[in-house]
Design a protein that fits this description.
heterodimer, A: two-stranded antiparallel ribbon, 16 helices, B: alpha/beta, seven-stranded mixed beta sheet, three-stranded antiparallel beta sheet, 14 strands, globular
Chain lengths: 533, 465
């Protein structure tokens, strides 16, 4: 029986049935419209009578000039109303826990284990003040220290900081360390950073903010970073290279060590944006390719949940030579006690408050501890296997292609192009994504600029089953068919979403945009009727 | 390795050997090794990484982590008077309930359709912050108050086209360090001294320093040292008279009782929303806000995402989306304003929940409670020989510096002795403000009972006398 079934699956596997999905539609008002005067969501402690007797009227403790005259016009809601409102909004949000979230390429939407969330909420971390005496926070410092040893092994780097609060903050930190390094050598004239167009936009933007001029390399005809372009770009002004590998196309640059050598020979440093590390855990390391700095997004590769866009950590690793520039404090261990060392005169200083986002570090440590070296290797293998599985399936869908590196395997993601389908039907990649949402999945295109026309970036990670991958593919195939047969249906999507097609006009018009409710009311006040004036 | 029994990992659906094998066949690969052919041999890790043995069962993992966490002593078990940028407030249960929801916790970068809830919740957060701040534009949170301040000053420099910022010297050492790093390539920082008696900004120092080169005057209210700056209007006027912007850092939990900075002329307001519903989390609950008036020249200088409200093709239905997206680095890489990326959105949603629960009355009352309790603490700590409480005469909100020079004890010694009594004493200021001698910054919030404050006073008395 079992044998028969598996034979059936192999030979005549039916297309997965598409879901008759409809996202929650609560027509929930904006909270500013809710509630009634006098309602309370929570009561706060009052000072004891004895305190009142001694200090008198609390308001009078504020000088008249600084006393708020009228209370802030916040909504007034009872507690259950607040809860219901936000739970309805949560239902109108498609978290990674609910969908086959392979459509948000570059972001590694993997499973965030629930046990780690439980641990991260324990009072033994939730109720720690960051300035407590070290002796009272030995547990969290031990977790920081131990996780640092793990990342050192994974990357080959010599020391890490967890202070940068996300990937871009880590890129900025790398750029700041590069600046400090050249400054310390009296080489402040090195003011150019080289990056590639298929590295995250923040590699260019953060380095620019740190004061560098940006040189962006475009790929060669096969989609690889262009070595000859790099050789032409380096000079005595080169401060460093910020590069991703594999790039956002999922193509691994086999000449990466040569890139590093060229920049080193020119006197620059090399920083490895490891946002795409999920497919190379246990396979290859930043230091082995000669990099001087690197960073990992703990909210991507190391499973901490994305939180609608943070909190996060951009764990930043450097070689021994650069460790003196790391932000303060660093966690140290003398064999008995963990401590925070602030006394580092060459440090770039603080890039954020305190020691960084501790619960994210804790979750990441727990994730690695659940897997070990073999498990991390399995993560990489399955993430890459899933990706190449999707690639094969995508190649069976008419109208989509995987530009560049023909015949080569991809690592953890692929940037596809719907150019052919778009030319045939007039349907754009964004519209395919909005229609895909009607079947309960998320889909994203690409960062800007769209070097790959009509882009779509799929990164399946290790967290989705083969059946789920098949379902996602069935959705895209179905939408591609719809684009041919009934393009208007796709172009007017979404149809089964919380809301209908948005009017984007006001969002770019200073006279009409409204970032707060008060601005919205001000700009949409009913105009006085001229007949009555 | 080959002889070991394959492990099926619960987090990895396709780690079942049969499925993995079938999928390898599906893609025409003999082994996963084929996928890594582009990685040169000399860059390959030889063998397995040297990592700790995994704790494969969830039970073993949980025991291990709980064991590590048990080595911490929490601010709840002890009595804590630490503030200095991260404060111990009550976190309403509904805040935790909402930010633990999978739909919010695990979402990321969805579209305004599949992530309508996230857009609306963050729009509501900015709307409520707008009421608290009396300003029309508030960003989707940046990392923390440090980043918010650093970006606010860069915005001021871009808006004015100037390269110098005047910063009140009462700023915390950590934030100043951040500003020095972040503004380094483009802006010069000049520190403005404070009045040694009141702790407020020294207006003569401001008058002497400000010029047509100044992009901004930055001060905090309440300041890092807890002082309510009473000359906000005068400072803003001076700034404006020289074509500079008034940039004010504010603790949002004070704004039920304190005038919002916009009312005394602030052009950009910034700070950290950790007090609005975030657990301290060893510093993991920070998130930064920036607020301005709704003028194009301000809006176009934000690096952050700004979520705006709009209509849909169905009358009466709200939609949300990015306002002026083209200013961001997502749209224009290095041509965008600074950069945008993952930051602290979940804490923005949480702060919205907090403000919705508190309402106008809650925010007023919590401000009054904090004022009363910190005033009471000032008075009881003042009853000790050699202790100057508060160190500064200016009015305070929630925090104040206490000087121990007259006791012959250092803050470090006092805090060690307090720790033996299970009390976490105030933040030692001797590193950041050497001119204040042996002073510590004590924080009091609504969670401190009179008996807690009395216990602190009794313990201090025991230690220093």
């Amino acid at each position: 029986m079992k044998k028969q079934e598996s034979a059936r699956q192999q030979n005549h596997e039916p297309s997965p049935r598409l879901r008759r999905f409809h996202q929650a539609r609560w027509n929930e008002p904006v909270i500013m419209e809710l509630g009634s005067p006098g309602q309370r969501g929570i009561l706060v402690p009052h000072p004891e009578e004895a305190i009142k007797k001694i200090v008198g009227d609390a308001k009078a403790l504020v000088p008249e000039v600084m006393r708020r005259k009228s209370p802030p016009a916040l909504p007034e809601l009872s507690q259950p109303e607040v809860l219901r409102h936000y739970l309805r909004l949560s239902q109108e949000n498609l978290g990674a826990d609910l969908n086959i979230d392979v459509g948000q390429g570059t972001c590694t939407m993997k499973y965030s284990p629930k046990v780690n969330d439980q641990l991260a909420r324990m009072p033994q971390i939730a109720d720690l003040h960051p300035l407590q005496d070290e002796i009272t926070v030995q547990g969290i410092l031990e977790i920081f220290f131990k996780f640092e040893q793990i990342l050192k092994e994974i990357s080959g780097m010599d020391q890490f900081t967890f202070q940068p609060a996300a990937g871009s903050a880590a890129i900025y930190t790398n750029a700041s360390i590069i600046r400090a390094y050249h400054h310390a050598r009296g080489a402040s004239g090195r003011n150019e950073i080289i990056t590639t167009i298929f590295s995250h936009p923040s590699n260019a933007a953060c380095a620019r903010t740190a004061g560098f001029k940006i040189i962006t390399l475009y790929p060669d005809e096969h989609g690889y970073p262009d070595l000859s372009a790099l050789k032409a770009a380096v000079s005595e002004r080169t401060a460093g290279l910020l590069i991703t590998n594999p790039e956002d196309t999922g193509i691994y640059n086999p000449a990466i060590a040569e890139f590093v050598r060229v920049v080193h020979d020119a006197g620059g440093l090399c920083s490895y944006d490891q946002a795409n590390a999920n497919g190379i855990l246990g396979i290859t390391r930043a230091r082995d390719a000669g990099f001087d700095l690197c960073h990992f997004n703990l909210h991507k590769t190391f499973s901490s949940p994305h939180g609608c866009g943070g909190p996060a950590v951009g764990a930043t690793g450097v070689t021994h030579e650069l460790s003196r520039f790391l932000p303060v404090p660093v966690v140290e261990f003398d064999g008995y006690k963990y401590r925070l060392n602030h006394d580092r005169p060459d440090s770039i200083g603080k890039v954020g408050p305190f020691c960084g986002v501790a619960p994210v570090v804790l979750r990441s440590y727990a994730w690695v501890m659940a897997l070990g070296a073999r498990g991390l290797r399995e993560v990489a293998e399955i993430a890459v296997l899933n990706n190449n599985y999707l690639l094969r399936k995508m190649q069976g869908i008419r109208g989509v292609s995987a530009p560049y590196a023909q015949g080569k395997r991809r690592i953890e993601q692929v940037r596809y192009s719907w150019e052919a389908l778009s030319k045939e039907t007039g349907v754009h990649s964004e519209e395919i994504g909005l229609r895909a949402a009607d079947f309960g999945v998320h889909y994203w295109t690409s960062h800007h600029p769209y070097i790959v026309p009509e882009p779509c970036t799929l990164e399946p990670t290790e967290s989705y089953s083969r059946k789920e991958l098949d379902e996602y593919m069935a959705i895209l195939e179905h939408v591609a068919d719809e684009a041919r047969e009934e393009p208007a249906l796709v172009k007017t999507a979404p149809h089964r979403s919380t809301i209908h097609t948005i009017d984007h006009g006001p969002l770019d018009d200073p006279a009409r945009w409204a970032v707060t409710w008060r601005a919205y009311l001000r700009k949409n006040r009913p105009r006085p009727n001229p007949d009555n004036s | 390795m080959k002889n070991e029994r394959p492990i099926v990992y619960p987090y990895i659906p396709n780690s079942v050997p049969e499925i993995k094998g079938q999928m390898l066949r599906d893609v025409g690969a003999m082994s996963p090794e084929e996928f890594f052919q582009e990685v040169p041999g000399d860059l390959r890790i030889k063998g397995e990484m040297n990592l700790p043995e995994p704790l494969l069962s969830e039970h073993a993992l949980k025991k291990h982590l709980e064991g590590l966490l048990a080595k911490n002593k929490t601010a709840g078990e002890y009595l804590s008077f630490l503030g200095a940028g991260c404060w111990q407030h009550h976190v309403p249960a509904v805040c935790d309930e909402v930010n633990q929801r999978s739909e919010f916790l695990t979402a990321y970068a969805g579209e305004p359709y599949d992530d309508h809830g996230r857009f609306q919740a963050l729009f509501e957060y900015t709307s409520m912050m707008g009421e608290l701040l009396n300003m029309d534009v508030v960003n989707v949170p940046t990392y923390d108050g440090f980043q918010a301040t650093a970006t606010a000053l860069r915005m001021a420099a871009r808006i004015t086209g100037r390269r110098e910022v005047l910063v009140a010297r009462t700023i915390g050492g950590g934030k100043l360090s951040k500003l020095r790093d972040y503004l380094k390539p483009d802006l010069e920082i000049r520190l403005l001294d404070y009045d040694r008696t009141s702790g407020c900004l020294n207006l003569d120092a401001l008058a002497a320093a400000i010029s047509s080169r100044s992009a901004a005057v930055y001060f905090e209210n309440p300041s890092y040292l807890g002082i309510i700056e009473t000359s906000g209007e005068g400072i803003s006027r001076t700034a404006h008279a020289h074509g500079a912007l008034s940039v004010v850092g504010v603790n949002p939990i004070s704004l039920g009782v304190l005038v919002p900075p916009a009312d005394y002329g602030a052009d950009i307001v910034c700070g950290d929303i950790q007090p609005l519903g975030m657990h301290m989390q060893f510093g993991g609950g920070q998130a930064g806000f920036i607020a301005t008036r709704d003028e194009e020249k301000y809006v176009m200088e934000y690096p952050s995402r700004l979520f705006g409200i709009t209509s849909t093709r169905v009358p009466g239905e709200y939609g949300f989306g990015d306002v002026a997206y083209e200013r961001t680095s997502f749209a224009r890489r290095e041509q965008g304003k600074e950069w945008v990326g993952t930051a602290a959105a979940l804490w923005g949603i949480t702060a919205g929940v907090y403000l919705a629960l508190m309402g106008p009355q809650g925010m007023t009352e919590i401000g009054e409670t904090i004022l009363a309790k910190s005033k009471y603490a000032e008075l009881v700590l003042a009853c000790m020989d050699g202790v100057q409480s508060p160190l500064f005469a200016g009015p305070h909100f929630g925090e104040f510096a206490v000087n121990f020079d007259g006791t012959g004890w250092t803050v470090a010694e006092i805090n060690r002795a307090l720790l033996e009594r299970r009390i976490l004493g105030g933040k030692d200021l001797s590193g950041e403000f050497p001119e204040l001698g042996q002073s510590a910054l004590f924080s009091f919030t609504e969670i401190h009972a009179k008996s807690d404050i009395d216990r602190l006073a009794a313990a201090l008395k025991e230690v220093v006398t």
